[in-house]
Amino acid sequence: MHPAHIVLLEFHPEHDNLTHEKELRDGLSVALRMGRTLWLANDESVSLERLTMSETDSTGRSSFAREHKQFALHDFLPLPLPAHGDTPDDINEADIEGLAYDNKYLWLTGSHSLRRKQPRPDDGAKKAHKRLSSVSADGNRYLLARIPVVEQDGEYTLLKDTGQKGKQRTAAMLRSGEHGNELTALLKQDEHFGPFLALPGKDNGFDIEGIAVAGKHLLLGLRGPVLRGWAAIIEVALVDDEEAGWMRLAPVDADGTMLRKHFLDLGGLGIRDLCVQDKDLLILAGPTMDLDGPVYVLRWAGGILAGRDTVVAADRLERVLTLPYGQGVDHPEGMTLFPGKKDSEDALMVVYDSASPSRQIGDSTVIADVFPLARRAKRKSD
């Protein structure tokens, strides 16, 4: 499907110092729009990027080309590793793969995944074998956190602490260390996910790529594992810990259950992002392995109101978009609701990892696509 129109995203090149080899625009992993503010992240960084929408140009095209501001996560959260390793080029990335907003906090999640080294083109067999046997855990990837959001002069910004007496909101994250957090400790005992925590994300191992707020709970979409063709969403609840800056897991049900599981038949695809539209959950579905496509957006009607463990058959999921992708480039990675051309429609803005040269403009701009997205017709049961 071709986009209805495009949006230009303009970054400041001087902010590329908190990524590995990619430019910020070349590795976008997630997007979240709040009015005229757009939040983005690069999966090799340890920061969030804020862009502000400019006035629509004479062609009706939108752009986020004003006041790119970078927010270093270490200014808000007690991450287990510093931003840089032994050298300035060695970034202890957070691998941010999901953003969500609940009118008070920006919620964010890292992938929680292990990483396997990739052979290089000039490696001999021995060196390539060694690289493929090297698996590492990056402590900053075990990130599940919230940061207070406030509106200032029509623009949204982040604060570590709002400072309001009686209504104070503070940044906090789930307790973690260099090799995991409270969530992975819980999942180690899980019959479905425990065996996959020792596998890298791109080997169908455990890999979070999407977050959505469902009342007082969080939904975490998994790129992997995909079990016999079934993708998974895990549902958790977080509460403040006694020590400031930290949160802990809480029961999701009155009987003390700590985790809900939702399995969805995505035909062998994994979840690459989540987005809430009314009471529905939009799912960006793509390959769990290191492949180009296919990529779809599916609607789980009433998905944020499930309220129990579920198994969602393919015929309960509506395919609303088939997204374009390239060969080795332009992989759809993040999506966010965007104003549509008609009152009866929303639209969906999609950002891409490995942006192709045709998607890049000048030294700092990249193209995002906008697709029309009709709302689901309301039923008597709604």
Describe the structure.
By secondary structure, the chain is mainly beta. It has a domain at 82-326. Helices cover 4% and strands 45% of the residues. The chain is built from two helices and 28 strands. The protein has helices spanning 125-132, 182-187; strands spanning 5-10, 28-34, 37-42, 47-53, 62-72, 96-101, 105-110, 115-116, 135-136, 144-152, 155-158, 172-174, 176-177, 180-181, 207-214, 217-227, 230-240, 246-250, 260-265, 270-277, 280-286, 296-300, 310-312, 317-322, 331-339, 345-353, 360-361, 365-374. Strands 6, 7, 10, 11, 12, 15, 16, 17, 18, 19 and 23 form an eleven-stranded mixed sheet that branches. Strands 1, 2, 3, 4, 5, 25, 26, 27 and 28 form a nine-stranded mixed sheet that branches. A hairpin with a 3-residue loop joins strand 6 and strand 7 (105-110). It is globular. The two termini are 29 Å apart. The mean pLDDT is 90.
Uncertain runs are none
What portion of residues is helical?
under 10%
Secondary-structure element order, N to C: EEEEEEEEHEEEEEEHEEEEEEEEEEEEEE
Number of helices: 2
Largest sheet: 11 strands, mixed
What's the β-strand tally?
28
**What's the N-to-C terminus distance?**
29 Å
Which class of secondary structure composition applies to the elements? mainly beta
Strand content: over 45%
What's the rounded overall pLDDT mean?
90
> In one word, what is the shape?
globular
User: What Rg, in angstroms, do the CA atoms define?
Assistant: 20 Å
